[in-house]
Amino acid sequence: MSYLELKDIHKAYYLGKQAFPVLNGINLTFERGEFVAILGESGGGKSTLMNIIGGLDRQFEGQVLLQGTALDHHQEKQMDQYRRETIGYIYQSYNLINHLSVLDNVLISLDMTKLNRSAREQRAKELLAKVGLTDQIKKYPNQLSGGQKQRVAIARALASDPQIIIADEPTGALDSENTADVLKLLDQIAEEGRLVICVTHSEDVANAGTRIVRLADGQITSDDRIKAAYPVDENRQQIPARKLPWYVPMSTAFKHLRYTWTWNLIIIIGTAIGLFAVMLFNGLGNGLKGYINQEINDMVNPRVVTVSRYQKTSQNQRGGGAQANNQQAAAMGVSSTTTSQPTFSSTQLAQLKKVKHVQTVQPIISASNATLSIGSKDYTASTLTTWTASNRKSIIKAGHTAGKNEIVVDKDTVAKKWSSKNWKDLVGKKVTVSFQTTNASGKSVTVKQQLTVAGITESTTGGAVNAVSYATMKAMRSSKDLSTKPTSVAVKVDSRNHNDAVTKQINKLKTDGKRTYRATSIASMLDTVNTYVNLATTILAAIAGISLLVSALMIIVTMFMSVSARKKEIGILRALGESRGDIRRLFTSESLIIGVISALLATGIAYGVGAALNKVLYQIASYNMIEIHLGNVVSTFIIALVIALLAAILPAWRAARLNPIDALAAD
Ligand SMILES: Nc1ncnc2c1ncn2[C@@H]1O[C@H](COP(=O)(O)OP(=O)(O)OP(=O)(O)O)[C@@H](O)[C@H]1O
Questions:
Q1: Which residues constitute the domain of residue 640?
Q2: Burial label, 123 (beta-carbon count in 10 A; 0-12, 13-18, 19+)
Q3: Where are the transmembrane segments (predicted)?
Q4: Ligand 1 centre from 473 Cα, in Å?
Q5: Ligand 1: which of 9, 13, 56 to mutate, judged by most atoms within 8 Å of the beta carbon?
Q6: Nearest atom in ligand 1 to 40's CA
Q7: Which of 447, 477, 494 is the last residue in one of the domains?
Q8: For atom 7 of ligand 1, which residue has the closest CA?
Q9: Interface ipTM > 0.90
């Protein structure tokens, strides 16, 4: 049984339906320790035969047997393994990978062995020393002479310790001195017990071997042994091979990106700009939400739920926006209720107090369209209410909260109208408050009382706040024999988190099977505001995201260009034994690396620009308007990776589908 046997190999190329036969029944046997020269005219089919032996060509008839077992050229994985474990290639045009250093060119083959990292590096260095290139290992192929390149190729062919070395015109591009060196190396390789098959059309080269096979018209015309084959040490252990680990294509991709960094930098910057815009808009959305929430919380206590008696009005039935406005106003403690509204009994106040998580229950009485007369001038307070826990003290911009026979008045609609410059001076002035209401028997009654201005309020969320203490309101109404029962109630909850639960609970309370209360909380208003801010932010981010489409297209174009420019590399890697999956991983990794670097750059820019904008905006709003959260960063990375992955699919697929022989023939 021969080590390698070719049985009746036929091969024809087709142009359309027309066949051009190249090999017409080749029968040959080879043994290890031989240095076989296949000699023939140019175009005689030598390279075609080598591609069949090397497991690159699958379109032929006949059999290739390795140690008596026929190879199945249609089993892609089996052929990948065969090339990886058994074959080492040396080409006339060297076929080194330009973006890898001399050492890396050799290591790329060693990555498919089970040697550990340091052993792989040691072997690569030893092989490079053997071919006389110890000083050149850090250079790149374009920094070497032709002879040096071919020696790197020889070291690479030997790296994975293959039993068969196929050399296709290895000296075709070399001068006589380098030719002699290369032939000597090939002879040494055969002497080590390997099978060297060298294609040539030079008699001199052929004579350097142990056997000459002549090929003409697609057939063997002679087969002469000129020297005895070298003995083979059967006990010699071959270095075990393995599939390429997943991280190697990634590191090769990184090396390629580094080698072609200028072009890639442009793509990365382009992609990063789109990602940055998305991140910044999201950050702005967070900032705006935070700002609005803070502003509202500064003015209204979010732990307060405002409760009025439930009335089934025509507005309720329509569920119109006016009701929502009333509810919001009520939530701010600025109830627009009128005296004709139902009031709360003490039992009902007690019932509310008993609701779980309720801390205090504060009654409110409001009056509509009160007139505030200061000196000879009249001002209108659309609502005069009683001060409760729902009002933040921080809305008082001058003076203090209203005590007995005191009032706090709105800055814009009262104090500033009184004096636009010296509005603070209104504190301490006397004001006559009057409003009309109806008594128990339905008669119109005017309530009028002189009060002192205790403070001036400013609220930007719920309109004007004109308020007296509950005791003052009660006294004013008692003087006219009017009811002093509350028209609404401010319910303070033990924690903000229980706000919703309490609101729901109160709304569920029933008397005789009918709903009793309508509870509204500032939290629901904040929810509405947040929904709108989220919507606006998402729209802005989505518009910015359109630029990411351009980024994706840029990555696709780059990847396609990269595949076209690196066809030869793909062919070389396939010849070394890399699978289609490895090639796909190589280009996908490259795209993913572009995505990750773009996302990193975008994050850096976003934080930088965000900080700069915050500096400016802080002067205006005293708030850091750009708040980029970790979640925004994570989602940016996810977006970048998804884009990169999608952009890589087609180019990587195309690269993996390339026929290795066509790829190797690329310029
Ligand atoms: N992909 C192909 N499609 C069509 N014909 C091809 C193809 N590849 C090679 N041929 C033809 O097959 C024949 C054998 O080519 P091959 O490259 O095997 O010859 P060779 O002996 O190696 O030549 P050289 O010494 O010039 O490299 C040539 O006539 C060539 O034109």
A1: 258-295+529-665
A2: buried
A3: 261-281, 539-565, 586-613, 633-653
A4: 107
A5: 13
A6: 21
A7: 494
A8: 13
A9: yes
pLDDT in the model for residue 300: 67
Contact predicate 336/329, CB 8 Å:
yes
Q: How far is the CA of 414 from the centre of ligand 1 (A)?
A: 99
229 assigned to some structural domain: yes
Tell me what percent of the chain is helix, strand and coil, each rounded to the nearest 5. Answer: 50, 25, 30
β-pairing, 488-493 with 304-309?
A: antiparallel
Stated as kind and residue range, the H or E segment containing 655 is helix 630-657
Last residue of a domain, one of 473, 494, 515: 494
Closest protein CA for atom 22 of ligand 1: 47
Pairwise CA distance, residues 467 & 407, whole Å: 6
pLDDT on residue 313 = 58
Cα(16)–Cα(23) distance, rounded to whole angstroms? 19
Ligand 1 pocket: which of 24, 46, 220 to mutate (most atoms <8 Å of CB)?
46
For tokens 């070389």, what's the residue?
572
Could you tell me if 43 and 88 lie in one domain? Answer: yes
Cα–ligand 1 centroid distance for 48 (angstroms): 6
Which runs of E-coded beta strand occur in 109-240?
A: 164-168, 195-200, 211-216, 219-225
Those residues of the chain that have pLDDT short of 70 are 297-300, 313-341, 460-462
Residues with CB under 6 A from ligand 1: 13, 22, 40, 42-48, 201
Return the sign of the alpha-carbon dihedral for residues 134, 138, 140, 143: negative
Q: What is the pTM of this model?
A: 0.69
Query: Is the residue at 200 inside a domain?
Result: yes
